[in-house]
């Protein structure tokens, strides 16, 4: 449905660098990245608001360079909703249909269907500035869908919503995708949104696409240290492979050895990536041949609802995420000595210094 081939684009001091990505028909594709990384620029390039300096953007297999924005059948919803403040909800949703000069009866039918679909029939005579953020967002997406686009582009649609409204809206976006079979491209800096909604993700940092793939793979197996940091890996440790036995590498991390499944050779510099939820705690050394056991001192206990984030000093900082029940059973307190235990297969080795 959408394809970027080595797209470069300069806007003032900002550059997109050789971006290559593909979004299949019916995918819910997320573009992740920090503020200023270029996420919105990619959306605007798909919509036809920016032309690439080099490379090509293709939509439905055709070079989009010769396509005007209105010919792309793409709808873009910005973070600030961009509703017309002087128009009612009904007129906002009907706007694009009137621009297409559809018959009044067809316009009324589509608008009423969308009002019902989004549960906003009671808002049809209201003006945007009298509504909550969640209500405005529903209207903005209803207006975008009114013209029946093939592709829906969402620019951080959940950023301005309170936590309860945000969770509700995530469910509504999931239902929208399933119901309409739309190709949706959404940009965000929120890892949680991507994990709940995305079929595939791309990570863009400083104008470069640094990772792309299935959501679970990008998050569990980041290709570089830079990507690991952005996708929220809790434990990121620099080390050097000291030996490799039949695909099990021993990595020296500040004098301690960590086992990982890997084909890296001795002497290779690597970045150890380990999620906190994969680290267990015990008062005894209960390790095995394929387990890592590190002795550490508890430096922090940070409750997060039913789980607790435990900070450890194992000669380097290490984080574990365990249930409160485990803390109670082990009678753990700050200053206690404990063993951190995790399987070799839960350790992922990324390339250091952001080099793919």
Written account of the structure:
By secondary structure, this protein is α+β, with helices and mostly antiparallel strands. It folds into 2 domains: 2-225, P-loop containing nucleotide triphosphate hydrolases (Rossmann fold), CATH 3.40.50; 234-354, Beta Barrel (OB fold (Dihydrolipoamide Acetyltransferase, E2P)), CATH 2.40.50.100. It is 26% helix and 37% strand. The protein contains 9 helices and 20 strands. The strands form 4 sheets. The chain has a 6-stranded mixed sheet, sandwiched between helices. The chain has a 5-stranded antiparallel sheet with strand order 13-12-11-14-20. Strands 15-19-16-17-18 form a 5-stranded antiparallel sheet. A hairpin with a 3-residue loop joins strand 17 and strand 18. Helix 2 (89-99) packs parallel to helix 4 (133-146) and helix 3 packs across helix 4. It is elongated and about 75 Å long. It starts with a strand and ends in a 6-residue tail after the last strand. The relative contact order is 0.12. The model has no long low-confidence stretch (mean pLDDT 91).
């Amino acid at each position: 449905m959408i394809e970027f081939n080595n797209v470069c684009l300069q806007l003032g001091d900002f550059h997109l660098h050789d971006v290559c990505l593909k979004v299949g028909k019916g995918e819910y594709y997320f573009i992740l990245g920090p503020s200023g990384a270029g996420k919105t620029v990619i959306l605007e390039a798909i919509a036809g608001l920016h032309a690439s300096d080099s490379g090509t953007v293709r939509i439905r297999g055709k070079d989009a360079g010769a396509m005007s924005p209105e010919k792309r059948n793409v709808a873009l919803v910005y973070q600030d909703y961009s509703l017309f403040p002087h128009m009612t909800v009904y007129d906002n949703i009907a706007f694009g249909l009137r621009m297409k000069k559809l018959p009044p009866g067809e316009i009324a039918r589509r608008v009423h269907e969308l009002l019902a679909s989004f549960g906003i029939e009671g808002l049809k005579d209201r003006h945007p500035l009298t509504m909550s953020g969640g209500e405005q967002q529903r209207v903005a997406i209803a207006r975008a869908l009114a013209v029946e686009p093939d592709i829906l582009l969402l620019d951080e649609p959940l950023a301005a919503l309170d936590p309860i409204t945000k969770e509700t809206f995530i469910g509504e976006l999931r239902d929208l995708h399933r119901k309409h079979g739309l190709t949706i491209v959404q940009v965000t800096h929120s890892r949680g949104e991507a994990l709940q909604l995305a079929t595939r993700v791309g990570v863009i940092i400083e104008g470069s696409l640094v990772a792309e793939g299935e959501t679970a793979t990008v998050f569990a197996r980041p290709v570089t240290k830079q990507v690991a940091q952005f996708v929220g890996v809790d434990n990121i440790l620099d080390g050097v492979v000291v030996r490799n036995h039949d695909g099990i590498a021993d990595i020296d991390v500040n004098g301690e050895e960590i086992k990982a499944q890997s084909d890296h050779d001795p002497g290779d510099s690597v970045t150890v990536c380990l999620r906190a939820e994969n680290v267990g705690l015990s008062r005894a050394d209960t390790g095995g041949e394929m387990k890592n056991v590190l002795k550490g001192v508890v430096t922090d206990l940070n409750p997060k609802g039913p789980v607790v984030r435990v900070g450890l000093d194992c000669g380097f900082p290490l984080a574990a995420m365990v249930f409160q029940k485990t803390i109670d059973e082990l009678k753990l307190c700050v200053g206690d000595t404990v063993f951190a235990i995790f399987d070799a297969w839960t350790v992922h080795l990324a390339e250091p210094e952001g080099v793919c």
